[in-house]
Amino acid sequence: MRQAFKDLLGLVYTPTCAHCGAPLVGEQTGLCVACQLDLPTTGFAPLVSNPAELRLAGRIPFVAGSSFLHFSQDNPTQHLVHHIKYRGHRQLAVSLGRLMGHDLACSHRFDDVDLLLPVPLHRWKLLQRRYNQSLLLCNGIAEVLGLPINHRTLVRTRFSLSQTHLSRIERIANMQGIFAVRRPEELSGKHVLVVDDVLTTGATLEACCLALQEVADIRISFATLALAGYL
Ligand SMILES: [Zn+2]
User: Are residues 62 and 115 in the same domain?
Assistant: First the structure.
């Protein structure tokens, strides 16, 4: 019955690639194979002191960090990020999360991660957007790495202004003290991977990690979909 419904749906709705619009075939979701191969990947995952890590170096103690894609005005990443944040393209976010998972799996630096922590949205933002794109990325990563996701312990306690038009200093000030950890015992002794969409100044990850510092014996790594230049 379910397959019959899918077949019927397929007659009237053919899923298309979120970037180029080509029809998707078989089990493909989000992006077609050609667009996946064309992604501006960074290759950072296995590299110590890669540019994503350098952006946060000296600000927070972390085990390892990586960004999967380069983000710039003239590459596909900006288009993809816009789709997953503002156009409701949830399946694309999960697909990109899977690609992030495969990328992380190629590096042994993330082998002993115990759980995934999506950067939380404030509940008002969640009501407005209806989903947290970082949680969807985690869903994709979790499928590949077989890790649990904890999305209730790290919480956003205060609404922050949109970061888009703020300077680096303003972004950092805007993010001070906006995260908190509920039930820290759930994270105690764990190696957590904090997951976010775009690493720009690092103010969001820094604020998350400062809150996580309250947890006993925690080790923190981070992974973002993309690394942007300072805007
Ligand atoms: Zn495509």
Answer: yes
- Nearest Cα to Cα of residue 163 among 108, 228, 211: 228
CA proximity to 93, closest of 34, 153, 136: 136
**pLDDT tens digits for 109-139?**
999 999 999 999 888 888 888 899 999 999 9
Task: Estimate to the nearest angstrom the gap between the alpha carbon of 205 and the chain centroid.
Answer: 11
User: What is the extent of the structural domain holding 29?
Assistant: 1-38
Phi, psi dihedrals of residue 195, rounded to the nearest 5°: -120, 130
Centre of ligand 1 from the C-alpha of residue 36, in Å: 7
User: Separation of 125 CA from ligand 1 center, angstroms?
Assistant: 30
Residue 164 C-alpha to ligand 1 middle, in angstroms?
27
Same domain, 23 and 44: no
Asked if residue 76 lies in contact with residue 35, where contact means CB atoms within 8 angstroms, the answer is yes
Domain total in the chain? 2
- Which residues crowd ion ligand 1, with CB under 5 Å? 17, 19-20, 22, 32, 35
Residues 186 and 92 in one domain: yes
pLDDT digits (tens, 9 = 90+) for 21-59: 999 988 888 899 999 999 999 999 999 999 999 999 998
Do residues 80 and 169 both lie within one domain? yes
Same domain membership, residue 162 and residue 50 = yes
* Ligand 1 center to 145 CA (angstroms): 25
Which regions of the chain does DSSP assign to beta strands (E)?
65-71, 115-118, 154-156, 179-181, 191-199, 219-228
Rounded CA gap, 120 and 158, in Å?
Answer: 11
Q: What is the mean pLDDT of residues 1-25?
A: 73
